[in-house]
Specification:
The complex is a heterodimer of chains A (285) and B (408). Chain A has 285 residues and is mostly helical. Chain A has 12 helices and no strands. Chain A is 67% helix and 0% strand. In chain A, helix 5 packs antiparallel against helix 6 and helix 7 runs antiparallel to helix 10. Chain A is globular. The two termini of chain A are 21 Å apart. Chain B contains 8 helices and 17 strands. Chain B has a 6-stranded mixed sheet, sandwiched between helices. In chain B, strands 11-17-16-13-14 form a 5-stranded mixed sheet. Chain B has a 3-stranded antiparallel sheet with strand order 2-1-4, with helices on one face. In chain B, helix 3 crosses helix 4 and helix 4 crosses helix 5. The chains are: A mainly alpha (285), B alpha/beta (408). At the A-B interface, helix 3 and helix 8 of A face helix 1 and helix 3 of B.
Chain lengths: 285, 408
């Protein structure tokens, strides 16, 4: 029963069948799944891969129009002190959010989608989720390169850019942990899927993405709202992303360390829980 | 590397019958069964033991057969061996790369093309892409799917599914191959090809575990067999013994039910019934099994509710594949029982049993004197065991008592 508990923590023990990191032996499968996902994407569309850029561009344009132009949210000045631009300020946070959202929804649908195979052949049940994560990271990389390219053209560039991929890795670990947890619950209770759509929608607005954190009043309804929003781990990621790319600022070792700690804890916790809860998943799907 | 490819030690598997499983969070939280009137009762799940304390050893490079009736736990056993189900108790040790063909569409994703599924399957089994690149054409050819290989597998017929599944499973260089009774779906020609392929895999040292209802095929090909009965290991070992033991229960259970109510093909009232069939040897004993070449007496017990004039008794001998081997009839053999009334029996005597070893079923029928009306018939109910080592030199079902001569 307590296979996970009794495992010795050597590489061989962790990667053997049923081990916590057995996924390592299934690299080929994950590569195949990613290839399948990317290959089938935008099939039968005229613009094809252009959609992977048009989609975020359209979202960005809408938010920029509504919140930047109509509601006149004021962005701070960019790191080089020469301009301010709401769309770019927004984009820096939106990339993070898109990755977070993509990993969570991707992990949930991947398990349901490929789960039927688990009754016929053995493979680690986290493989589809990991493949979904890599697919999302691919998309995030496209978005981020466009963003960085624009910023470089505006001569708003610094060494801080180099830290951004690290931030993305932490965010993916954080999101994967949550996504794995939700996906295994979602197999048993489909409510989880519906519920998380709502929660994610709410989360989008309590995270400083379409607005700067400074716009939130210190206190409202007798609550320290700004501090509450700041405590949301996701806010840390979006804010840090803005600081690195837009403000050209170092977030500080303490904050980075805290983000690393939180994401590693959530990621490892979600992963372990998933491994324990999916030991009999073939019977449930 | 041990001697055994698969070791199953004291494995039990419990399923929860999921009918009452809570399906939404609300139910899970409150534990209420919706509409059940009774409040504050936990939704319960009934445990069901599909396997109980099974221990098996499958020697490396052998062919291992599993028999049992439907629902006896065979498929669960295979899934546990393949690592898809986790045993509730006990442990399974597998040494070698395992390829499993467990049901229709062995691990296929319906939306992907046949070719993509080949790659997906191969990667699931841990076969590198470079290796499968060389094999794809072989697989497609074996499955006979040249035209359809780039169409999504959801449009495939069940036969195509099975052919592709089998082709992939055997072409990924498995060390252990686990096959459920799936190949039975393919046509005869494909089945033949499957078996000859299994045979050649075995000769290459692949360990094969298979489930089948074709007892003759299993007995002829397996090195060892196990018989599962309602989740318990009923017999294990030599295929001959296991098949005989398995057939034995079919026989006794059949006979037991005869004791309560007569089973026959004829429903309702009939003046003449066959009540039992007994097999005696030359000394008047009723052995469990006979040897080829022994004398045999088949006694047909009847019960007539009114006098019947000169009925025709007949027997039918069939092998396990339902092939009709012989059908002696009393009138044709020049025997007339005269008027029968009440209880009695007639016998058919054979000096030497011509059948080679195996299990044969014997049907009995009784008709009126000009064979135009069937009074009663008992089919697939009485089994005749012919034991003995299958002689590898001898082929066929029958011993023909001829002799050979030479001339020039």
């Amino acid at each position: 029963m307590g296979r996970l508990g009794s495992t010795r923590w050597t590489w061989a023990a962790l990667t053997k069948r049923g081990g916590v990191l057995e996924i390592w032996g299934y690299r080929e499968l994950i590569g195949r799944l990613v290839q399948r996902e990317l290959g089938s994407r935008y099939k039968r569309s005229v613009l094809g891969w252009l959609w992977s850029m048009l989609n975020p561009a359209a979202t960005l344009a809408i938010y920029a129009l509504v919140f930047g132009v109509l509601l006149k949210f004021d962005p701070p000045r960019a790191g080089n002190g020469r301009f301010d631009n709401f769309a770019l300020y927004l984009f820096c946070a939106l990339v993070m959010w898109n990755a977070f959202y993509g990993v969570i929804t991707g992990a949930m649908s991947a398990l349901l989608d490929l789960g039927s195979l688990l009754g016929k052949v053995y493979f680690p049940p986290e493989a589809p989720a990991v493949a979904a994560l890599l697919t999302v990271l691919f998309q995030a990389a496209i978005e981020a390169s466009i963003l960085m390219l624009i910023l470089i053209c505006l001569v708003n560039v610094s060494w801080t850019f180099l830290l951004w991929p690290v931030l993305l890795v932490f965010l993916s670990i954080f999101a994967l942990g949550i996504g794995l947890m939700l996906s295994v619950w979602n197999v048993r209770y489909r409510d989880v899927g519906y519920l998380s759509t709502i929660v994610l929608q709410f989360l989008f607005y309590v995270t400083p993405i379409v607005y700067p954190l400074s716009l939130i009043p210190e206190r409202a309804m007798g609550l320290p709202v700004r501090d509450i929003i700041r405590l949301n781990p996701l806010s840390q990621f979006t804010e840090a992303s803005r600081e690195l790319l837009y403000g050209l600022d170092w977030p500080g070792v303490l904050r980075l360390g805290l983000m690393a700690l939180i994401s590693l804890a959530v990621g490892a916790g979600g992963w372990l829980m998933f491994k324990v809860r999916t030991r009999d998943i073939a019977e449930e799907l | 590397m041990g001697e055994n490819a698969v070791v199953v030690e004291g494995v039990s598997k419990r399923f929860r019958l999921t009918l009452d499983r809570p399906l939404s969070l609300k139910e899970a939280w409150t534990g209420l069964r919706p509409g059940s009137g009774r409040s504050f009762r936990r939704v319960r799940s009934e445990p069901f033991w599909a396997l109980r304390d099974i221990s098996l050893e499958v020697p490396r490079g052998s062919m291992y057969g599993l028999v049992g009736r439907n629902g006896s736990g065979k498929s669960t056993m295979l899934r546990v061996m393949a690592g898809i189900y986790r045993p509730t108790e006990g442990r399974v040790e597998i040494q070698g790369r395992t390829s499993a063909l467990l049901e229709l569409g062995a691990g296929f994703h319906p939306a992907l093309s046949g070719r993509e599924n080949i790659y997906l399957n191969a990667s699931v089994l841990g076969v590198p892409k470079s290796q499968i690149d060389d094999r794809v054409e072989q697989i497609v050819e074996f499955a006979g799917l040249e035209e359809f290989i780039d169409s999504p597998v959801k449009i495939y017929s069940s036969g195509m599914y099975v052919r592709l599944g089998f082709a992939v499973a055997v072409h990924v260089d498995p060390e252990i191959l686990i096959v459920d009774e799936v190949v039975a779906v393919g046509d005869e020609e494909f089945q033949l090809r499957c078996f000859s392929h299994l045979e050649s895999l075995r000769s290459q040292g692949v360990t094969i575990v298979l489930v089948s209802h074709d007892l003759g095929m299993l007995r002829a090909n397996c090195d060892q067999m196990a018989w599962l009965n309602r989740g318990l290991l009923a017999a294990v070992g030599d295929p001959q013994d296991v098949v005989n033991a398995y057939l034995d229960t079919i026989d006794t259970e059949g006979a037991a039910s005869v004791g309560h109510r007569p089973r026959s093909d004829i429903e309702g009232e009939t003046p003449l019934r066959i009540t039992n069939l007994e097999f005696f040897d030359g000394a008047g004993h009723r052995p469990k099994s006979f040897a080829s070449g022994d004398p045999l007496v088949v006694r047909i017990h009847y019960s007539a509710s009114e006098p019947v004039e000169d009925p025709v008794f007949s027997l039918g001998f069939y092998d396990h594949n339902n092939l009709h081997l012989a059908g002696p009839r009393s009138h044709a053999d020049g025997f007339r029982p005269g008027k029968v009334d009440g209880e009695g029996w007639v016998e058919f005597r054979l000096l030497r049993i011509p059948f080679r070893s195996g299990a044969f079923h014997v049907n009995a029928a009784v008709q009126d004197s000009d064979a135009s009306f069937l009074y009663d018939r008992r089919a697939r109910e009485f089994w005749l065991q012919i034991s003995g080592e299958p002689d590898p030199q001898a082929n066929g079902l029958l011993n023909l008592e001829g002799d050979w001569r030479a001339g020039a």
